[in-house]
Amino acid sequence: MKSFVMNMGEVVRTIDVETDVPDFSSLMLNRTSLNALAKAGFIKPSPVQAQAIPFGMLGLGSSFRVQNFL
């Protein structure tokens, strides 16, 4: 199974993303969603996904800005 969580070795992160990202099950997603994520090869959410998913589950509109230096 292909994994979408990349092993990038040593990565420098700014202070705003220096958090321990939980796995998807800690975000209280339903079993169908968790199974679909696992089947697609997703292991754990990105920092922005971990922050955005709870807002989406509450039905709140949100906008997130992410820096990408890849």
Automatic annotation (TrEMBL):
<feature type="domain" description="DEAD-box RNA helicase Q">
    <location>
        <begin position="22"/>
        <end position="50"/>
    </location>
</feature>
<dbReference type="InterPro" id="IPR014014">
    <property type="entry name" value="RNA_helicase_DEAD_Q_motif"/>
</dbReference>
<dbReference type="InterPro" id="IPR027417">
    <property type="entry name" value="P-loop_NTPase"/>
</dbReference>
<feature type="short sequence motif" description="Q motif">
    <location>
        <begin position="22"/>
        <end position="50"/>
    </location>
</feature>
<keyword id="KW-0067">ATP-binding</keyword>
<keyword id="KW-0378">Hydrolase</keyword>
<protein>
    <recommendedName>
        <fullName>RNA helicase</fullName>
        <ecNumber>3.6.4.13</ecNumber>
    </recommendedName>
</protein>
<keyword id="KW-0347">Helicase</keyword>
<dbReference type="GO" id="GO:0003724">
    <property type="term" value="F:RNA helicase activity"/>
</dbReference>
<dbReference type="GO" id="GO:0005524">
    <property type="term" value="F:ATP binding"/>
</dbReference>
<keyword id="KW-0547">Nucleotide-binding</keyword>
<dbReference type="GO" id="GO:0016787">
    <property type="term" value="F:hydrolase activity"/>
</dbReference>
